[in-house]
Amino acid sequence: MTRGMDHNSREKLMKMPFLAQDLIVKILVRLPINSLLRFRCVCKSWRNLTFNPNFIQEYHLLHLSKYSFFLRDYDFSQNCYRNFFAWDDHPSQMMLETLDFPPRDLSIKAASAGLLCCELEDENPQWFVCNPATREIVELPSADTEYETYTMVMFAQLSKPCNFKVMRLCPHVPTYPDWNCQVFDSRCWAWTALKDIILDPGFVIEDKCSAFVNGAFHWTVWHAVEPNFFILAIHINDDNSIELTELPQPVAAAATIAESEGCLSLVNHSVDTVDVWVLNDYHSRVWAKKYVVNLGEFIEAPLDQVHIMAFLGEILVIEKSGELFMYYVKSGRLSKVAVENAVEHTGIKVFQYESTLLPCKNIV
């Protein structure tokens, strides 16, 4: 290390204070992600340290924010998608910043732990995984495109080794009860065709929302003949076995599901109220009503124009007449997105933004 140095330089180097490895970790793990990415260039040992799965997990948990969001809508005038980053900057409003990543020709299909799964919509579609925080983007291998993608979901795992899975569901047109199921696993970097998902005739999968809980992907499904809603679970680690779960109460067509604090949640929106149910005991299917939100207390009439876009942790994302609001169900606080006409109802998607170091390629 000291080869090529003169005597004075070697003496200065020997007198430099030594930082213990655990102290370096404590310093680096507290840096904002932009600064940390620059510090990776200081030396090889620091770079290797910040790619260590244990460091990535600690960084993710320390910087995880419940109050930052990634929004995507479609700009019809420019025929492309638009990206926005929203953060809680003020008690009564949420700031919105335009982003140039991921590329605006990519459609976001799924998200998990700070990673986005995107699709380049074409005759021969391509799929990508990207990390907006580190601006890393990686193309996934080609998949069997005999059937058109209906919905995609994603789950990223922070424990060692860091990895993620993406699932594609494709209907066997025109017989919707039969679904082609493919899973991409970053550990083997390949798509695998699982056995087809076969539902009873009349069941239709809702693609507007999904949740990963207890080792399974979940969607709401409804029956075309009998107006009943259920929750469909596909267990990816158990030969993609399926389950249908009854809901705790009759729900409206606008009902959504989400993962909240490790539990499966149901958000049922009627005209003037929103009920939030939580499946506290997954195996015995015990539901409990956790919140009742009276929309009339903070949203001006007419309430029939209100749309619940998402439920993220403890926040309802609400859209009304082109305006976007974030309602904090625990505190009862309402924040309005602060940029006019930045988000339109048509084509909007909302994801929780997580400033993460999770790589787009597997690290063992």
In round numbers, the mean pLDDT is 81
Tell how many strands the DSSP assignment holds: 25
Radius of gyration, rounded? 23 Å
**Poorly predicted spans:** 1-5
Gross morphology is globular
**Major sheet: arrangement of strands:** 21-22-23-24-3-2-1-25
Terminal residue distance: 29 Å
Beta-strand percentage range: over 45%
Structural class: mainly beta
Helix content: 10-25%
Largest sheet: 8 strands, mixed
Q: DSSP helix count?
A: 5
Spell the H/E element sequence. Answer: HHHHHEEEEEEEEEEEEEEEEEEEEEEEEE
Concise account of the structure shown:
This protein is mainly β and 364 residues long.
Structure description:
- It is a single chain.
- The protein is mainly beta and 364 residues long.
- It is 12% helix and 47% strand.
- It contains five helices and 25 strands.
- The strands form five sheets. Strands 21-22-23-24-3-2-1-25 form an eight-stranded mixed beta sheet, with no helix packed on it. Strands 12, 13, 14, 15 and 16 form a five-stranded antiparallel beta sheet that branches. A four-stranded antiparallel beta sheet has the order 4-5-6-7, with no helix packed on it.
- The radius of gyration is 23 Å and the shape is globular.
Which helices and strands, and how do they pair?
Elements: H1 7-15, H2 21-28, H3 33-39, H4 44-50, H5 53-63, E1 68-75, E2 80-90, E3 93-99, E4 107-112, E5 115-120, E6 126-131, E7 136-139, E8 151-157, E9 163-172, E10 175-185, E11 190-198, E12 203-205, E13 211-213, E14 216-223, E15 229-235, E16 241-246, E17 256-260, E18 263-269, E19 273-281, E20 286-294, E21 306-312, E22 315-320, E23 323-328, E24 333-337, E25 349-352
